[in-house]
Protein 1
Amino acid sequence: MIKIENLEKVYKTEEIETTALNGINLHVKAGEFVSIMGPSGCGKSTLLNVMGLLDKPESGSYKFIDTELLTLNDKERSNFRKRNMGFVFQNFNLIDELTVFENIELPLIYNKVPAGERKKLVNEIIGRMNIVNRSGHFPQQLSGGQQQRVAVARALVTKPKLVLADEPTGNLDSTHGNEVMELLCELNETGTTIVMVTHSSHDASFSNRIINLKDGHVISEKINKGKTEELI
Amino acid sequence: MFKLNLKIALRNLWKNKTSSFINVIGLAIGLAACLMLLLYVSYEWNFDKQAKNSDNVYMAMTNVPGEGNKVAHTFNGSTTALGPLLKQNLPEAKYVTRMDYGKKSLIANGQNSFKKDSKFAEPDILKMYDYQFIAGDPKTALTNPLSVILTESTAKILFGTTDVLNKSVRYQDQENLNITGVIKDLPENSSNRFDFLMPWSFYEIVDASAKDLNWNNYSFVTMVSLNPDANIDLVNRKVEALVKANTPQNAQSQPHFLYQASKLHLFGKFENGKNIGGDIEQIYLFMGLAFGILLIACINFMNMATAKSEKRAKEVGIKKTIGANRSSLIFQFLTESMVLTLVAIIVAIALLEICLPSFNKLLNINLGITYFNAVSWIGILGIVLATGLIAGSYPAFYLSSFNPIQTLKRKISSSGFLKISLRQVLVVGQFCFAIILIISTLVIYRQIQYIKNKPVGFDVNALVEIPQEGELKTKFDLFKTEMLKSGAVTSMYQSSVSLSHRGRNFMDMKWDGMTKPENTVMFNQVATSYDFIKTNGIKLLQGRDFSKSFASDTSAVMVSASAVKVFGYKDPIGRNVMVFGSKAHIVGVFDDYVWDSPYKSNNPQIVYLTSGQTGTITMRLNAANSIQSNIETIAKISKAFNPAYPTEITFINSLYQEKYKAEKTLGILSNLFGGLAIFVSCLGLFGLVTYSAEQRTKEFGVRKVLGASLLNLMQLLSLSFIKMIVVSIVIAVPLSYYLMNKWLMNFEFRTEISWWIIPVAGFGTLLMALITVSLQAYKSAKANPVDALKYE
């Protein structure tokens, strides 16, 4: 589904030039669950941002089911993103002024889904995420695990083809972290493609394939056999 | 989407109560001030514009020739002959009416008599103005000389009802008039107001000299309604030619022209016969003030919104990642500012309703919001939209421009050089405006004080006057004897005009050694009786007051010091001048005193002795008695002479107070709105400091743990703001100095801008800003460092 070739990204400040991505090649098949690992500053978040169309690389190619995405303008990128991608962040990034229900509803509004259908879709996913009794609450009234479940719900409500997760368990204790990882696995099992950046090899063990980055290069790729076999 | 944006806006308002309060109150004050001044401006702007065809109604103006082919003076008086001439010979003239300036006259219903504003006019006036008749026929109402039209409230005062057609009222205790019409009360912002209107044909009975079509007496008003398609320049050329052809031409002949009557109120200042503005300048000033205060409030909003940007940045980032585009975010932030403005306008209207009565009382007018008028709602809506847009546009464009990756990682910082400096520029701009207002207020106050403290030339407090009417016209000598006998007054005189008066100018003067064949200098004339100087106490420079011991005094004059200067007489006493063609000798020279505008030097004055010209009786109160008992005695005696007339005793000092009215209004308004501007600016500053302190809570905690003192921290927080105020002072001081010097140039008598005004304004503003900033700085510097460090 995703074909990334020769991706280069350089950050320039006044004194220093940092190469974040240095000729990355990466293919992700539909239905795969890929983890990206590596030390701090290896470029994994940059790669995720480029994949999420939040950042622009200097050169290379990024094809999403045969559509070249790097040539799109801002508006087209925004449209493509809202139709095909969902995001889960380390710090949840919920809007404090909106309730759980309204937070989850927001992407549907941007996708111009009619009100009746919005309600149906949001209620459906709230049920699935086991946060029904929280739907009228504001983010600050929830625990971290609950907040991340809301964030996942928000990422999924538009039924995206690709979910991008940036350290989804980074701000959670292990129990809540495991809950979120299980949620992502369930999601993956229903056919959603997931790309996750993580520090934790425990989290990575939930995925089919682990890619290791260092200094903007892919240094190794490992098929998670146990997981794959389990799948088979 | 809109609903959701509205929700976010309202929840944000609720959550950030301090900033919402500052924004709402600031904007409400700004909007209330703006609405109030706009009400005032629209009141002034609509002056004399009530008639349907007010654009076609013109006033005959007269140019008074001066030195060297220039026009010395332009005024709206005209002669009795001009009206008929225009009516017969000017094809564009649809209606022409002559009228008097109007005065207070006695009107009685048989039992009680009242002093009311009267006016005489030709019947065409009813076609020129669309008066709303409650009763009577406008076509015939002024046909019969002995008829009168009452306004609704006059009819109610006289008879308790408006059903008064064909009843009779008595005018000036002389003549019975038949009521032929009742009209609705006239609007306050009209210069042609009256309580009852009588036909010109009746005036020709009251004052027989008005029947004679002369070109000498400019005591009347001529109004002309032109056809809508008339070209005013062409008409004015015709008027000039007509007048030239029909009057003897000499150096004193006064050319006429027509001027739009509705423009006279705001564009009434003429120089060399050409309009050079007028009170419209004040209107511009007030509009500037109104929008200035509103702008200050808008800047507060912008500053607070961008200062809060760190908080909002996350929201922008999230929305952008899940699909919002920039325009939808701009729309959201504009919605927020609109919501805020809407809340503010409700508070503003409430504020306005609370303040309007005292504002009206202060300015002696009657303003009010007309809630059932579409135009006023469209106006209010327009102001709300404009305010919301101005206040919201910069934050909307600024906030929506954030890059989602940076905002989500909380990397956004206010370190952007340009953003910071724009906020600083706005704060500096605000305070510049505030400082300019403070300095202007002080200078205006000083100028008013200067004029007030300038001696008028006699003691205004010891004198009272009463109108000379009814029996007092013929029995003045008897009245004088009785008054003096009663001991209430020590001396008194009658004169053609009050001590405080305008006009009564003439040029028919000749003196020895005149270089020109005709005089072109305007003189002012006062006809009086004995004891003129003795009563009013004007300083006699040479010679003496009129005296009964000199029979020849009937042909004597007293002249002002400036008149002597015009004559060029070295030793004026005993010298002769020709006044209105008859010879008169000078017996006294008195010092110039203020009788018209206190802001400029008045014309030279000639005072002559005659018993024929009555008008006003001026009296010097006996200081040995209490004022109250003196007044009671005067009232009792004059009532005995004039039972039909109500007694009207006027203190001369109140007449002189009136002269300061225009500048007093300016002073009140600039004080009031200057104060508001400073308050709203400080409110904004307070908000900014609060946010800056909130952002630096952690930094302060760390510094405190490391040993920073309270003073250190306060300095840290206050210094950057104080710097901005200092910059504002540096910019605003020379600017306001220049502007106020220009304003002072309008006055012939003017004060200097005292040196102390500048440090007072500067330190005053600095002090207020310092107090505002320190309050918040102290609070956050005093906070427990542990709390600060826990905060995240």
Note: The CA atoms of residues 543 and 588 of chain B lie 4 Å apart.
Protein 2
Amino acid sequence: MQKSTFIYVTYIRTTPKKLWQALTQPKFTRQYFFNTTQESEWKKGAPWWLRKPDGGVCDSGEVLEIDPPRRLVLKWRNELMPKLRAEGYSRMTCEIEKQGASVKLTIVHEMDKAGSKFIESVSEGWPPILSSLKSLLETGESLEETRRWPKGM
Amino acid sequence: MKKPKLVYTTFIRSTPKKTWDAISKPEFTRRYWGGMTNVSDWKKGSKWEHHNPENEVWITGKVVESIPAKRLVLTWADPDDLKDKSRVTFEIEPMADMICLTVTHDRFQAGSKMTGKVSRGWPRVLSSLKTFLETGKGLNIFCRG
């Protein structure tokens, strides 16, 4: 099966619980994920949405696996760009492992097709988002450029 | 068979000069790179070495390109296996209140023993570098569990 895969590993001086909260709770995601929030009941099979500041949906999907604060797997499709939406659902796996006073965070985002434009797009998005999340947890302040929804999107 | 290429991008609340100094000056590098240091005059054509705290050489190579605070390209090999050579590029891009650091490790030899080690190592080292620049203290990069 041809696949497009993006993998990012970062180590953050925090606890698994704090990282899990920052990954899922709106008061945190607004600060580093371009002012977006996630809506879900956070149970296996539950629907999942990523919403823009105006409430509109930017991405949608489903919770495939959830084991707080260790593992989260989402079905994930872009809803804003027709060409990306047409590629269908990707799979996003988030793994959190305690490593002494730090936590290892691994994001694997994959699509069952070669040359996925969606995976190319998230490959650009994840590094600044995860860098900003790390800054937020380690210094109390996210990176400025990731606090606002991009103009015109 | 497509040749492996590792590209790691991180955004750090710091300046190009501080980032360059953290990579190139032993007094900073040892504070986030597990006590290791990078030793060179960083001029194009010069030798460079990666030393452990006992000053043993763990990695060696040459400076291919050097634009301070912007771009550094090095060849990279274990001194006990110089044929297994690869290349590392550091690129520092200034942005509004931060920098974008992109590290590319490529040009591996076929069957290189380096790829596994460095693909596990770079996220540790670069995460620790970011923590060092933003908080003054690096991470314990050799910690496991």
Note: The longest strand of chain A covers residues 57-67.
Protein 3
Amino acid sequence: MRSINLKFNKLIKYHLLFVCLIVFLLPKVSSGTNYADNQTDTSITNNNLPSVISDTLDTSLKERKIILKDSSVLVPGEPVTSIQEHPQEKVNSPHNNVNKIVLWLMGDKNVAEYKIRLIDYGNDHLPLFLRKYFMRFVEKTYTYPIIILFLLLISGLILNVTIVLLVMYFTSKTKNHRERYVRIYRNHYEDVLRSFLFGDIDWDLARLKLKRLKVPLNRKILTDVLLVFKENLRGEMDSQIPQIFLKLGLEKDSIKLSKSIFYFRRIEGLKALTNLDPENAKVIISNYLNDSHITVRTEAQVAYVRLHPENPFEFLKTLKKPFTRWTQLSSFYIFRLHQIPVPSFTDYLDSEIPTIRNFGLRMIIFFQQLENAPAIFKLLDSPFEMTRYLSIQAINDLRLYDGKQLIKNIYQGETEKNKIEIIKALKNIGDEADFEFLESIILSDSISLKTEACRSLYYINNLGRERLNVLNQNSDLEIDQFLAHVTNSRN
Amino acid sequence: MDKELISSIFENFFLIYAICIFSLYLWLAVVSARELIRNHFHARNTNYDAIISTPFAPMITVIAPAYNESLSIVENIKALLALYYPNFEIVIVNDGSKDNTLEKAIEAFDLEKVTYIVDYKIPCKEIRGIYKSRKRAFNNLTVVDKFNGGKADALNSGINVAKGDFFISIDVDSIIDPYALQKMIKPFLEEPCRRVIATGGVIGIANSCKIVDGQLVEINVPNKLLARFQVIEYTRAFLMGRLAWSRLDGLLLISGALGLFDKEVAIGCGGYYTKTVGEDMELVVRMRKYMSQQNIKYKVAYVPDPLCWTEVPVTLKNLGSQRNRWTRGTIDTLFIHWNIFLNRKYGFMGMISHPFWVFFEWLAPIIELFGIIYFLVIAFLGSPNWPFLFVMLFFVYTFSITFSTYAILYDILAYNRYKKKRMIIKLLLTAWIEPIIFHPLVVYWALRGNFDYFIRRKKTWGNMTRVGFAQQKPSKKNPEK
């Protein structure tokens, strides 16, 4: 609800701007000027035109001078009338007859008030040198015929298109130039570093050949090259790469980046430090494990897994935000890629955050951590469907026979997805004692449950197959069709 | 009421409507720009290797309805099999084709009919048979042969057969980016607090592009003007409209050519509605409505990458028929779900998105028509202010080309698809003549759509001729589809 309110507030903000635009375009309560008076001779002849035009033009001719009661916009020497003092006069003016719908929609006072507000805003917020121009702008938009405003808008749009075209041209040019520049220096740095790492040249010569390292873009290119080398090279060279990074002082750039206000720069910094300066990274990433930005958080958590092989998922104990599936996948990927020793995931099954519990269950299933059975059974009572689903899956995959009765007990109250999982589990951990249970499902209405029940009964043992044959003969359930389906490994 | 008051009502209404539409589009453009920037940096920091190599990747079912696709079915299935994702299956639904679509698939992939128990969770026309390949390489391919029932019905039967937790609905004759699945599943996996129910992607136009073995290898600007107009239109719609709506959580339409859905939610709300020609929009609206009614926090996500390429109509007849159908689909969806209009219960969708579609998508061409009629009346009864009229027209024109030029700029900045300067110049020139040539046609087709919907009560897809990507020969499409 709060987010909806925020969106409405945003909308109101945007629409206030839009209403202001309407006020600009329909100048009803404006002060007459000599300029406008001059315009009216021609406009009066076109009086049967769309009201918006004639409205503005007539205004200039017929409207009496009404100036808002605001000291900041008083024009010395001109007669002053306030709207509030002469409401009848205003309503009777020909201009207002034409625009009564808009006046009805927005209210007479509002129209005047917007102008006052605009002027007050200018007085209160704008710098002194701008104020004069702003006042003039407000006055003129309330005074000039609408046609001029449209012409101004058209000029603005044409200018806009011109700027866009220039941006297109220069963007394309700059992009191409930058791409070429990056390519050239990337190749150069790769060549030099390759020569150094393979022992063709010594460090002093390599340092000399690494040109333009004072340029931030070049330092970034070099960092990227080092990251690629680090990812692809192993053995002695692998340990040399971080040393090059430190020798060239590139870690300072990365530390600076990791403190940037822009999240994407923070990520860049974290990535470089994690791979090339692990000691510094260990200190820094702890600050970002609960970062408000999900991408930074993910990067920090993945980096933690990489840098703490002794206990890669310890951070989950201090996590305050959900551990999304994407982050789970990313962490798991790094975990496997770097062949980090597998820890016990029991602790995470007690986490208050459901996504951490689910992750723990997934890991327990994947790494077949059988010792966690009691904790898994406890999770069958979880209020979260996914947690129960994974617990049933764990009982199935780890062949936890003690859990069989537990999952059968919860069957009735489960969702269809979990029911299917329970039946699937019985295929692996079930026995003759479950035949009746499965047969009752076969006699139920749900096709999906029936199919799975047939599959389980068929694969438990030969007795199960015999029971299916008996069922097939004694009923019109078309069990043979189900059997044909479940025995085809492609289905 | 006197004449002056009536004219005042009309004029003020047209003016306010025009200002509303302009300001809303400007607002959407600004939101889109911010979202594009956000996405640019977000995508830069994403490592898709994590999902490609994981055993935990959720299963996705790719559902592709096919009707009389014998020209390209084999190539298209091959392209789908090459999708780069670790856990997916392909379900091709032969929707009662009258040509040899099924036979071609059987022959090419060594398919055989298998006994298959189908759980009809969503009602659909009877399935005649399920075909699986004898070759292990095509283990994840299923071909469903069913009686003709239209695209929505074919998709429903695909959902009934699908094994995955998510399904992606595509047009079989579209070209899907090999990385589409991993990109589209990401929003489902990274959303921490809300349930993502659907993801849409950008549709690119493949006319005149170079396609080899069902893969897009070279992007070109279409040679035909009508297709080029549609490039501008699609760019505007996807990069300046839908992107902004997704950011505002008000996206009501995910293109039928490419959309990834949460199967459980789709089944929960009854699947595709078969009695409408706008089944893609209708499903999204119904899924959103269903989630609101269940009081579950949800999100419809959007991936602003061109993940699907499709051939657009290049003849006035086909294009008119397509636009006519889109209009009827829109009206149908808006009316089927009329109870969400300005209904606070449905949040942003009820208060903003649905009314926007009513006022600025459905009613826009009708109001435009009334504006023209009103002007003609004025022109006959009196003497209109010609200078003002021309200034006004020119203003609308400049606004329109500014908008299109920005769309092209967004495209260049976001994707840089059109590498040659010549292509960009071609697009710009097309954008500048589009309001004069293409827009009146679009308005006309939309009006025809309204006429067909309200007066003729037409509910069918209409005729469509498409040139297959593979052979580039014309094939007649189903009137039902």
Note: The radius of gyration of chain B is 23 Å.
Protein 4
Amino acid sequence: MTAVADLMDYAEVIERFDPVLGLEVHTELNTKTKMFCSTPNVFGGEPNTHVCPTCLGLPGALPVLNGKAVESAIRIGLALNCEIAEWCRFARKNYFYPDMPKNFQTSQYDEPIAFNGYLDVTLDDGEVVRVEIERAHMEEDTGKSLHVGGATGRIHGADYSLLDYNRAGVPLIEIVTKPIVGTGDRAPMVARAYVNTLRDLLRALDVSDVRMDQGSLRCDANVSLMEKGAAQFGTRTETKNVNSLRSVERAVRYEMTRQAAVLAGGGTVIQETRHFQEADGTTSSGRIKETAEDYRYFPEPDLVPIAPSREWVEQLRTTLPEKPADRRKRIQTEWDLTAEELRDLFNAGAVELVEATVEAGAKPDEARGWWVNFLAQEANSREVELAELPITPAQVARVTVLVASGELTNKLAREVVKGVLAGEGEPDEVVEKRGLKVVSDDSALLAAVDEALAAQPDIADKIRGGKVQAAGAIVGAVMKATKGQADAKRVRELIIERVGA
Amino acid sequence: MSELTRFTAAELAEKIHGREVSSVEVTQAHLDRIGQVDDFVHAFLHVDADGALAAAKAVDDAIGEGAAPASPLAGVPLALKDVLTTKDSPTTCGSKTLEGWIPPYDATVTRRLREAGLPILGKTNMDEFAMGSSTENSAYGPTHNPWDHARIPGGSGGGSSASITAFEAPLAIGTDTGGSIRQPGAVTGTVGVKPTYGGVSRYGLVAFSSSLDQAGPCARTVLDAALLHEVIAGHDPMDSTSIDAPVPPVVAAAREGRRGDLKGVKVGVVTELSGDGYQGGVLRSFEGAVAQLRELGAEVVEVSCPHFVYALPAYYLIAPSEASSNLARFDAMRYGLRVADDGAHSADEVMALTREAGFGPEVKRRIMLGTYALSSGYYDAYYGSAQKVRTLITRDFDAAFEKVDVLVSPTTPTTAFKIGERVDDPMAMYLSDICSIPSNLAGNAAMSVPSGLSDEDGLPVGLQIMAPALADDRLYRVGAAYELARGEILDRLPELKGVSA
Amino acid sequence: MPNISRAEVAHLAKLAHLAVTDEELDVFAGQLDQILDSVAKVGEVAGEDIPPTSHAVPLTNVFREDVTQPGLTQQQALSGAPAAEEGRFRVPRILGEEQ
């Protein structure tokens, strides 16, 4: 293991340096087929079962571009306020690597389909930062390798590797920012907020699953520091493998403190790829970028140029979702949220779910409460995305309706939701099966109240004597007797009625 | 030799469809001929007797049941260049690196041949990955010219042309990147056509230079070539560069040409494709052919294509550049040869050692040349400039075709040279394609049709006819008219040595 | 004019993943020199105003519908593999990292 890197105190870093960020986000499109062949584009699967001669790079096989992928690329470009190329091509990026079947990647190079855009990003404190977009271009994903032998499947020390090309040829859009400058101590926050906003946007466009944990959204963070007052950017590092929003923020922050320590110690930052370690939040040195790297790009002769008509582009523009900043504003107003509530809502990735739940009949604050609090915790403990929980917005909405009508208490409602999550069926079925209905029949309740009062005559006397708060003990007894299925408020009313009448 | 091997494909088809003879008999006659002469000619790398006879029987059965023939050539066997993939039968491209490789899929050309009922006799010899003009670069030994065993049959498709010259097959498929159909046709006294680029699908054609490669027919007569052309041509959604337009009416044009009248046809003689470096007998044969075109009623004028002199240098930048990328996939990971996999060598080392062991010198030379031409720093001067020359050559063709209907030149500057004569002199070898390359760069259609035998060495000479893109039918009209006026050539083919009667 | 050195040829061989022999380095250096000398002629006419041609046919916008088609089975995919294990291609250990 390498020695632990020296780190500079963050406040000092900010005092002495200006950070410069560059973010490269790769997103896998959710098209039905791969970029250049009709093979299904699905996550996982038995190895080498989603392959064909083209994505396996067999001799003689040829690529044919997925029109839907081009459409998605243009929509992403438009949503990022980019210009859309009148004419552009694919190129071949030539380098050898076993997980790349042709030993070249078919990728756009100097003629991206979308370029010169921006994305307005709202920070936690409500300030809006405009991130300039350099380009968004189309390319293809690689296969996956499994390293066997040596220590724990790591590439180093492995005896051999096993290759699965199911992912090879999956359509990717790479979105590259221009250098992000002037963000000071908020650089890590800006990085995170950018990726988060971009993720929401891609989700709203319905072009990608945007699952960072499955790699359908991946971020590489370029970080460099320049001394205060310097005119030129410093040497940057590119941190890969940053696969959660929190990691984006941590990785940028770590690189800032690491690079600052290197520079302060009179050293130079090496231009290299670094890998983020989820476990301890550090980055470690990867491959040193040789200057000799020479990808020998040239226009892909097997694919013809793309010349999207302006009519097509304008038609696609009409399919765009609301801009993220506008959407935030609208949601805040419509649902009457504080800045903090709005932030939690977005950070939980719950906006669409809450919207759908409201649409299905829930009140906004109730819908939000379920998703941002109870269900977010459930998702967290199950280590899945919120949207992946086995419960639908309609089901959550039904639960809120049952609570509003008094058929369920909040406590019972949680039981019902747990039942739904456990696969016990629709909320009403869970209520039925688990027998969770509020006991709303007054005669049944009165019997329980009378019983409880008879059992504790001294407390009955206290209440009669005006100590209404003493009723709590009776309420507790009744709730216990009804196994929590009574409405506590109604029980209290009945007690007062019984004793005081 | 069985009479059945002497007929043209058109005659055989007529006999088979008229149930005068069966496809099985015809196929068996050619298999027998292969058995008799191929040790001497070495046109085939693999003979698939069982597959061919099974396909022949299927045609006979269908005809016997009264069904209409699947195509005008149904039942006529053919030889396929070993650069087109054949499911369940080896495809080596003349390379050690693909020795024994059995593709899991058929090329589109292969599929169309099967669907049209043409039994595939076997796979023909070629320069490794179609790089060469003599078939000497085959890893499996050279093919011999049936006219003179000591001489080359041209290349890269020497096996295909030699197989029809030696009456081992009535038809063959070749591929033409810089002249690999036409130059072997010229030096073996047979017809070879490079269709318009995009006219015949490249799906399953193992790529040498993607923007230049084109499959086409090899035959002993112009009409036979036309019949085969119509079987293999037409739009293919699996090839992005395939032209979505009706196939030019080449069979009708060939029949029209056989009426022997070229009145109203304007023929341009390309000034730049003659002079120094052209063998006297070739030039005299060419002049004789031009005189005959005049006699047939054509108007003949001189046309200058000033940039054709830059075609050869442009070709030797573009083709190797694309090849360096296309051949990167032969890396010992997924298919083909693998050496040095002893646990000690890394994947990178095994790739490099396998490629070193699996590729012959010409392939390595071109990969290095292409790698150089695409390198940063050299791209503009080499690859970029070559692509500009391509524009200039296309403009030369456009200007010429405003004045004339077809252009003519010798197909290649010399008759067949001796095996071994040019192997150590790549530049001399490259000159073989000086006349054929312009049409590959511009993508237009071109044919070589025999213009008799050279008066100095008695070896065949080819007349090249060039037509605008998508006007392939003009080649056939002019070619068929000329062929008829010229008279028979192959009856002067010497009896193959070492062949028992 | 290019004067390609042995070292340059070695670098090209490295880029192209060809484990060439010392002897080949010499042969290729000479031959590439000769070829490059000859093909450099393209520069004579490649003016600024000439657009490059990358494709022989002037086609644009050739797209495929986003509809799945059956591909290869795992067995077909692995049929040509020099080595396979657990449904995957088995390859020697990979040293470098993905780019």
Note: Chain B touches chain A through 45 residues (CB under 8 Å).
